[in-house]
Amino acid sequence: xxxxxxxxxxxxxxxxxxxxxxxxxxxxxxxxxxxxxxxxxxxxxxxxxxxxxxxxxxxxxxxxxxxxxxxxxxxxxxxxxxxxxxxxxxxxxxxxxxxxxxxxxxxxxxxxxxxxxxxxxxxxxxxxxxxxxxxxxxxxxxxxxxxxxxxxxxxxxxxxxxxxxxxxxxxxxxxxxxxxxxxxxxxxxxxxxxxxxxxxxxxxxxxxxxxxxxxxxxxxxxxxxxxxxxxxxxxxxxxxxxxxxxxxxxxxxxxxxxxxxxxxxxxxxxxxxxxxxxxxxxxxxxxxxxxxxxxxxxxxxxxxxxxxxxxxxxxxxxxxxxxxxxxxxxxxxxxxxxxxxxxxxxxxxxxxxxxxxxxxxxxxxxxxxxxxxxxxxxxxxxxxxxxxxxxxxxxxxxxxxxxxxxxxxxxxxxxxxxxxxxxxxxxxxxxxxxxxxxxxxxxxxxxxxxxxxxxxxxxxxxxxxxxxxxxxxxxxxxxxxxxxxxxxxxxxxxxxxxxxxxxxxxxxxxxxxxxxxxxxxxxxxxxxxxxxxxxxxxxxxxxxxxxxxxxxxxxxxxxxxxxxxxxxxxxxxxxx
Length: 576
Prior knowledge:
Layout: E1 3-4, E2 7-10, E3 13-15, H1 17-44, H2 47-57, E4 58-63, E5 70-71, E6 77-89, H3 91-97, H4 101-107, H5 112-121, E7 128-134, H6 136-144, E8 150-159, H7 167-170, H8 182-186, H9 188-191, E9 196-202, E10 208-216, E11 224-225, H10 230-246, E12 251-258, E13 264-270, H11 289-292, H12 302-312, E14 320-322, E15 327-330, E16 333-336, E17 343-345, H13 346-351, H14 355-363, H15 367-376, H16 403-409, H17 419-430, E18 434-435, E19 450-451, H18 455-469, E20 486-496, E21 499-513, E22 520-527, H19 536-554
Parallel strand pairs: 5-11
Antiparallel strand pairs: 1-2, 2-3, 4-9, 5-6, 6-7, 6-8, 9-10, 12-13, 12-22, 14-17, 15-16, 18-19, 20-21, 21-22
Helix pairs in contact: 4-5, 10-19, 12-14, 12-15, 12-18, 14-16
């Protein structure tokens, strides 16, 4: 053996002790560095990596709160929110996956190019809706594709069990469950819930795999109980639609009020719409004509003219009016009756619907007094129902009245009202002279009322209105077997450019039952009935009779005319 410096050779093996120790030292230092770094990251300064990890996997997600239910007065559901899923995406992840986008596009009812373009246009976003409110089966099919970046989000969809029967009252919500029309809009803050939030752990595909903690509990919307009775609402809708179709009318409206509380028991309109499927519908069909459309009330205003006359002290039940010879000249205008009624009392003015009689009475009153009598029952001002878009109608100031305007005002021309205003005004005759506020909500507390007519005047006018529905009256077709009915017909020429149309009419009937102690008031309007039958007594009165008769039975209101239960009233009346 030969030794040369620090290098030893033993047979074929050459040893390098310095190199070995050097490499071992380097290895040990590296291991120590890595160990120190691991301890530093995992123990001493773990917040950074934990934050980065949480940023990739932990998310705070919104927990939707369902919208409050709307029910009728008896607790029957009119609007409910049902849970659904919406499909959303992270565009960058979806495009990078190069997965089954053709199949996804098919499920979304899109073509491949549309889907890819949509994702590319929103490549920088972390959340993009692909399809809202999908069926559970479709949501499951999409998730089975297992495409990175595609997820589901729980939402709620509004559903209206009664469909178009209650659509004009309820309105509807948009896709984000916010009220857009009707009571859904008016009470949106009451119905809308407050979403909650929670922290969750998601996998690489964006799916929630674990709920970590609840941050805020969702607060559901509050329930709204309406004054509407769904049974009466269905009945009113059916009869109104039948009449509108039968007479090929342009539109129709029906309102029913509870006399004791001012509650709206039914409110329907035609044409209607299905709030569950609004595809292709015209926006004009959304409006509630009972509160947004105004019209001249025509002869349905005559009872208020008579009431003003009785209140003035200038007239009583025995006072007579000379309507001969069947026409009456006021300035350059001629006012006519259907025929010459001769000398008649106030009750006959109502029963035969005499324009001349009403005009002469109105002209004998001070303009300010007559105007005040009309304004006191709500004409020219909003009912205060709170319904979105309600209009106040028009009642011109008495300072601007000409003699002709005062005369025509007496039978409902030269002013405009809504159907709800007219129904509320008739409440004064049903409640012995009191005016109650109207309400879309169920009333559980006593209602404050204001006096507009004396008890005696209200009862006298109500008695006159009964004669309208009796033999010889213009509204005999509004009669109901077993019940005393009080009401007034109206046939109004519609306004056109330059004056009034000769062949376009509104057919009206406003009335109450049982007349001995009224419980319900209803107003029926048929807009532009076609054919020879267009008078309110022939078109609107029968609708009133059918709906009121059904409502009286449904609400268990006892009859007040037992002598007529076994017979039928046969009468022939005037033309109004």
